[in-house]
Specification:
Blueprint (H helix, E strand, L loop, with lengths): L1 H14 L9 E9 L8 E9 L2 E7 L12 E5 L3 E5 L1 E6 L14 H11 L5 E6 L4 H12 L7 E4 L15 H6 L10 H13 L5 E4 L1 E4 L2 E4 L2 H13 L4 E4 L3 H10 L3 E2 L11 H9 L3 E2 L3 H10 L4 H20 L3 E2 L14 H9 L4 H8 L1 H6 L17 E5 L12 E6 L2 E5 L5
Parallel strand pairs: 1-4, 1-5, 6-7, 7-8, 9-12, 12-13, 13-14, 14-15
Antiparallel strand pairs: 1-2, 2-3, 5-16, 10-11, 16-17, 17-18
Helix pairs in contact: 5-6, 6-7, 9-10
Bound molecules: zinc ion.
The site of zinc ion (ZN) has 6 residues, from loops.
Length: 420
């Protein structure tokens, strides 16, 4: 009987070309599967999903469907590779298409999140600067099933010292009539940390170095320390925008957790600095493509542009080679360069292997953000967050951006057009 239902489901799937969201169970068959960055791949494997969880993974010959009779979506993944769902640890749920989220139609939010995130395989993202109230509305509409999108962790409004709102953010704020708060004392900062965490923030972002028209504005160290202490007391990580050498110093001396960018303005990172970062278990989000995008925006000469990229790549290379923790991130939502291909190519140029890049997309963020017991890998009992690629990213790193399906909590939230 069981077999019959599974067979029937397969037939239906063939007949209706596997309509998504039609069944709550999903089976991926004949896939190449990387269960984790350190395990050998499984060839011709099957992954069985029920109620948002992975129930089984193993060879297609011996791994069978669920022991219950219900309709199942079966996806043939011949020629495709499956990894745990990707994380993007530096995004902004803060572009024009995502504002006023309580008033815009679900289709607009879904399409915006699709073009920016889900079509690139992201099942979880860390929003490192937005309007917390607006992001909470988007999260709720996604959780209610009304909007399709990734799981969103957020810092809400970033922490800027007085006069420290970056010059490049101001036109966007003006255009959209948004006023972001700044802080003038440590006491005020601590109160705001409490408030933001109470309102649902999963972390806190500080601008240790803000780029202004007349140079880099550095947050006072005692203010940064007060913010970090309070955030840690409340169990929240601190992400830092460094900009330059002094900004990196504020991050390290304040005890912050994660650099949200490399900092090409700070010059090559020395072995001594790398050692301090490693000892502090600092996480690093490279956002290498950003420096290319910004140099082009500033009409830098090709030589100067290359110089910025090389400096960014050197810093990632040094930290990754030393065994520092790397978290994949691209700063989309601030930039509109949604295509992730260049980021993967530059990460390879920095000497990162396929396994290291996969770790930066899965196990590292899951560990860093306290979710590794149920996220970041493919195993029985884990969240059914999966990314399915056309081809094999271990043989061509660009395949990481050729996403066929994005599966979150066992539901297909993105499906590439078959002719793509
Ligand atoms: Zn950013």
């Amino acid at each position: 009987m069981r077999v019959f239902f599974l067979f029937l489901a397969s037939m239906l799937c063939g007949a209706f070309s596997c309509s998504t969201g039609f069944a709550s169970d999903l089976i991926l068959i004949h896939a190449k599967v990387y269960t984790s960055p350190v395990e050998k791949s499984l060839e011709d494997a099957t992954i069985v999903i029920h109620d948002g969880q992975i129930r089984a993974v193993g060879p297609s010959k011996t791994t069978k469907g669920p022991h219950f009779a219900r309709l199942v979506t079966v996806v043939d993944c011949t020629g495709m590779t499956v990894t745990a769902g990707l994380w993007n640890s530096h995004v902004h749920i803060f572009n024009a298409g995502l504002l006023h989220a309580d008033q815009v139609p679900a289709s607009q939010l879904t399409s915006q999140l699709d073009s920016m995130l889900t079509r690139w395989g992201f099942t979880t993202v860390f929003d490192t600067g937005s309007l917390l109230g607006n992001t909470n509305v988007i999260r709720k509409r996604i959780d209610d099933g009304e909007v399709k999108g990734p799981r969103i962790l957020t810092v809400g409004e970033p922490f800027y010292a007085k006069g420290g709102i970056p010059v490049y953010v101001e036109p966007f704020l003006e255009e959209n009539h948004i006023q972001l708060p700044t802080i003038s004392s440590s006491a005020e900062a601590v109160e705001r940390v409490k408030q933001q965490v109470n309102d649902g923030a999963d972390g806190i972002k500080i601008f240790a170095g803000s780029i202004e028209a007349d140079g880099v504005h550095i947050m006072p160290l005692d203010m940064a320390k007060a913010i970090v202490t309070e955030a840690h007391r409340l169990g929240r990580p601190i992400l830092v925008h460094p900009s330059n050498e002094q900004g990196v110093e504020v991050a390290l001396q304040s005890g912050a957790d994660i650099l949200a960018h490399v900092a090409p303005m700070s010059g090559p990172w020395t072995p001594a600095l790398i050692e301090r970062m490693k000892t502090a278990h600092t996480g690093l989000i490279p956002t290498l493509t950003l420096f290319d995008v910004e140099a082009k925006k500033a009409h830098a000469s090709p030589e100067e542009n290359q110089m910025w990229i090389d400096a960014a790549v050197q810093q990632l290379r040094a930290y990754s080679a030393a065994g520092g923790q790397i978290l994949f991130g691209t700063d989309v939502g601030y930039t509109d360069h949604y295509d992730t291909t260049e980021e993967y190519v530059l990460m390879s140029k920095a000497g990162m292997t396929f396994a290291q890049i996969l770790a930066s997309l899965t196990t590292n963020p899951a560990e860093r953000f306290g979710r590794s017991s149920h996220s970041g890998g493919i195993a029985k009992g884990m969240d059914a967050d999966l990314t399915v690629f056309d081809g094999d990213p271990s043989t061509d790193i660009k395949v990481f951006s050729k996403v066929r399906y994005t599966v979150r909590d066992g539901k297909i939230i993105y499906q590439a057009h078959p002719s793509r």
